[in-house]
Write a structure and sequence with these properties.
- The structure is a single chain.
- By secondary structure, this protein is of the alpha+beta class.
- It has one domain (27-161).
- Helices cover 35% and strands 25% of the residues.
- It has helices at 2-21, 29-46, 136-153, and strands at residues 56-61, 65-74, 78-85, 97-103, 108-114, 160-161.
- The N and C termini lie far apart (77 Å).
Length: 162
């Protein structure tokens, strides 16, 4: 009787834990918007002109670290950038690359694609086939903010048109 009660109780606990961990992640919009506004401000400080389509800028930060920002498309209210590290010493799958959409009317910059894996969803169920984190989009936007801050903190980053 005691053995049955332990099994039944542990099964109920496992179901409870499973239900709690499977709760859908809901992004915190105010923090996401603040992050996107920060990214937009950083991009504007780095790029002298983000409205001209088919323009490319190459940056060198420190020794052996370089990256490129290309303006893929530009419209009245939005621009799309491709940002990628172009360091030769690392294989391409280890170098960060992302597509960023600038919303000029809202003054926000949002990562829409990272590491060429397709469009990012606001949240993911976990576990999932591609093993993305529940808050993958938020984390990639944090990475962009840190990367842009790093580039702004190193004044040797001098852009030149390619």
């Amino acid at each position: 009787m005691v053995l049955y009660a332990q099994i039944y109780t542990s099964g109920a606990m496992a179901d409870l834990v499973t239900r709690q961990t499977q709760r859908k992640y809901v992004p915190h919009l105010p923090s996401m918007q603040a992050l996107c506004e920060l990214n937009y401000a950083h991009v504007l400080r780095i790029l002298p002109d983000c409205d001209t389509e088919d323009m490319s800028y190459k940056f060198v930060v420190g020794k052996g670290l370089s990256y490129e920002i290309r303006i893929i498309e530009s419209a009245r209210y939005t621009s799309t950038l491709s940002i990628q590290q172009t360091t030769k010493e690392l294989p391409s799958y280890l170098t960060p690359c992302m597509t960023v959409r600038l919303y000029h009317d809202a003054r926000m910059a949002e990562v829409i694609n990272s590491q060429n894996t397709g469009a990012l969803q606001p949240s993911y169920d976990y576990p999932n086939v591609k093993m993305r984190q529940r808050n993958e989009k938020h984390m990639v936007n944090i990475f962009l903010a840190e990367w842009l801050s790093f580039c702004l903190q190193h004044p040797s980053a001098v852009p030149f048109e390619a």
